[in-house]
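Lecture notes, part 5. Sequence design as translation. It can be helpful to think of inverse folding as translation between two languages: the language of shapes and the language of residues. The source text, in C-alpha cells, appears below.
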C-alpha cells in the first residue's frame, strides 16, 4: 500500500492510494487526514479545508495493512472572499459582477473564495494565475435565461484577412456559442477546486428544449477551457450542464481529478468530459452519472482539422 500526493496547494491536496490489490476502494480502503475521514473515488481523494503552510498526515488502511504520508501545504498571499466584493449568495441576486471583480483583482499566489451560499451567475471568465475555490456548501447556479449570457463568435477574420481568430465552437465546427458558465481563454496556471457545486441549472424547459436548434447561439458548456495551459479542476460536483460539461479546447496540460459529474439520464448531449484538440490531458478519479458520453476524444470536423495541427496526448486513468 502506498500514498502519493498528486497535487498540493495552499488550501487543498489531491492524494492517490495505490497497491491495495482491490478495485473496490470505497468499501475496502479507508483514509483520514489528521483524524478526519476522507472520501475516495477509485483510490483518489480530494482534501479541502486545509491551511496554508501547515503540515498534515494522511493515514490509509486496507485490511491489516496501513500507510502514512506527511506533507506541507503551499504559501498563500491573500484570500479574496467574494462576499467582501458585494456578492449576496442568496440565489436570487445576480452575483456575476461581484465574483468577476474578485477574480480580476486577485494577485498571484492567492485565492478567490466562494464561501457557503447559493450564487446566481451568468458566465464567469478566469484569468491566468487564479486559484478559485468553491467551498463546501457553496453552489454556483447558472441563470437559465439564454440571452443573459455573452455570445462567443465562431471564426473572426483578421483585419488584413490573412488569418483567423476562433472563439466559439459547436460539435467540431467554428460556430457562435454562448459563453461557458465558467470560461477560460488564452490563460494559464489556473486551479479551480473545492467541495462545492457548479450547477448549470439546465432543464427541458430551456437549454434542453429543441437542443439541436440554434437560438441566438449554440448552447454553452458548463466549463469551457480554450487555448489554455496548465489548468486543473479538482473536487467539485458539476451538474445539469446546458450541453457538454467540461470542454477543454486546443489546450495543454489539463488535469481533471476527483470530480462528480451528474446530469439526468434524459438530458441531451450532456457529455461528461469532451477533450477536443488538446495536448497532455489527465483524467482520473471521476464519477459519472450522465445521459450521454462519459469521456469523448475529439479533433474537430473537416474545417478545423485541415487548418489546425495540434497533436493530442491524453492520459485517462480508469478505476473499475
Amino acid at each position: 500500500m502506498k500514498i502519493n500526493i498528486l497535487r498540493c496547494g495552499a488550501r487543498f491536496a489531491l492524494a492517490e492510494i495505490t497497491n491495495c490489490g482491490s478495485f473496490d476502494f470505497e468499501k475496502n480502503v479507508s483514509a483520514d487526514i489528521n483524524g478526519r475521514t476522507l472520501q475516495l473515488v477509485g483510490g483518489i481523494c480530494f482534501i479541502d479545508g486545509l491551511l496554508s503552510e501547515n503540515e498534515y498526515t494522511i493515514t490509509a488502511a486496507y485490511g491489516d495493512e496501513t500507510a502514512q504520508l506527511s506533507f506541507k501545504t503551499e504559501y498563500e498571499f491573500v484570500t479574496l472572499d467574494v462576499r467582501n466584493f458585494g456578492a449576496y449568495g442568496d440565489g436570487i441576486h445576480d452575483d456575476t459582477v461581484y465574483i468577476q471583480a474578485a477574480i480580476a483583482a486577485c494577485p498571484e499566489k492567492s485565492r478567490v473564495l466562494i464561501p457557503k451560499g447559493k450564487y446566481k451567475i451568468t458566465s464567469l471568465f478566469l484569468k491566468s494565475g487564479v486559484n478559485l475555490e468553491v467551498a463546501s456548501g457553496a453552489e454556483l447556479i447558472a441563470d437559465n435565461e439564454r440571452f443573459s449570457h455573452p455570445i462567443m463568435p465562431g471564426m473572426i477574420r483578421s483585419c488584413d484577412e490573412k488569418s483567423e481568430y476562433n472563439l466559439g465552437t459547436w460539435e467540431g465546427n467554428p460556430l457562435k456559442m454562448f459563453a461557458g458558465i465558467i470560461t477560460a481563454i488564452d490563460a494559464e496556471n489556473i486551479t479551480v477546486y473545492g467541495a462545492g457545486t457548479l450547477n448549470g441549472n439546465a432543464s427541458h424547459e430551456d437549454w434542453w428544449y429543441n437542443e439541436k436548434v440554434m437560438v441566438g447561439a449554440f448552447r454553452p458548456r458548463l466549463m469551457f477551457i480554450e487555448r489554455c495551459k496548465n489548468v486543473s479542476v479538482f473536487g467539485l460536483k458539476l451538474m445539469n450542464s446546458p450541453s457538454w460539461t467540461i470542454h477543454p479546447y486546443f489546450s495543454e496540460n489539463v488535469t481533471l481529478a476527483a470530480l462528480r459529474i451528474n446530469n439526468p439520464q434524459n438530458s441531451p448531449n450532456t457529455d461528461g468530459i469532451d477533450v477536443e484538440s488538446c495536448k497532455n490531458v489527465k483524467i482520473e478519479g471521476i464519477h459519472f452519472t450522465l445521459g450521454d458520453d462519459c469521456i469523448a476524444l475529439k479533433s474537430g470536423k473537416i474545417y478545423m482539422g485541415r487548418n489546425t495541427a495540434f497533436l493530442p496526448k491524453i492520459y485517462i486513468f480508469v478505476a473499475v
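The translated text above is only one of many valid answers, since several sequences can fold into similar shapes. The chain has a mean pLDDT of 92.
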